[in-house]
Amino acid sequence: MDAFEIIRKTMGEFADVPDDTVQTFISLAEPLISKKRFRKLYPQALAYLAAHKMKMSGLGKTIGIGTIGDTIGLSSVSEGETSVSFSNNQAGNTATDSEFGLTVYGMQYLNLRKRCIVTIVLAVKVREKVTADGKKFQKMLEDLDKLEVRIGIQQGAGSDNGVDLVDIAMFNELGTVHIPSRPFLRDSVDAHSSEINAFLQSMRMQLVKGGSAEDVLKKIGVFQKGLIQKEIVNGDFVPNSPETIKRKGSDKPLIDTGRMRQSINYVIQEKGGSD
Fold first, then answer.
1. Which of 149, 95, 93 minimizes the C-alpha distance to 122?
2. Total domain count for the chain?
């Protein structure tokens, strides 16, 4: 099913929204997500993102299934002589990923992104193949093209105080209504681009000299794992709140028990493998 069909068949609260309006929101969401990243889950991710944006725009049924934050634009509800007032603390959050936490559809979309994995692809082009060694090198590149290394917190890494470590990483990386974004994964790449480029260049040279694809990917995994762990410790992030400092006894963001940092790891798998 494509995104339009998913919305029509599974999200009944938008039944009264015209088809062209639904399609417009799908078109608006398309440039925001990557087919390469979501692969076979792309239509589902696109549907959740479009539904989230429709809900945030006030479309769909106000009462019923579909929202965590139906009241983001609602100050009160009245029925007869009874009136109930609402308040929310969303100011300043709607421009960040924490906005997704305001609807069930946004949370479903985040759930598809929740692995918090950094994927590094090492590309080497062969211009000529002339010798037996050249053919061997080409075969190695073909093997490399089938593999990828994923660095981050893998599913099944465990939990900390009853909360899945993947979720803890996602909450900190993207931010929530109550937790400011501390993007240790993205910063581990953005803040070390020159270092990463130099390292990847050395890995290309190792491939040229006959190194195996798997050995090179292992070294990339170890290298980027170290950058992520270093970023968790030394990154320039929003400081802890006074309440958090009092609870933890420390003003160091992202570090409490140390479980999240220790759980950073890498896995080598075939491209297109399970997320």
1. 149
2. 2
Q: Is residue 275 one of the residues assigned to a domain? A: no
Residue 232 in any domain: the answer is yes
Q: Per the structure block, which two tokens stand in for 66?
A: 């579909």
Read off the tokens for 271.
Answer: 């491209």
Tokens linked to 10: 């599974």
Residue 24 pLDDT greater than 90, yes or no: yes
What's the token pair of residue 251? 């003003």
The H or E element containing residue 261 is helix 259-262
**Do the domain assignments include residue 150?**
yes
Task: Mark whether 121 and 232 lie in a shared domain.
Answer: yes
pTM > 0.70: no
Please compute the mean of the pLDDT values over residues 170-191 and round it to a whole number: 86
Q: Largest Cα–Cα distance of the chain, in whole Å? A: 88
Backbone angles phi, psi at 264, to 5 degrees: -65, 130
For residue 273, what pLDDT is reported? 62
Q: Which domain holds residue 229?
A: 117-270
DSSP 100: G
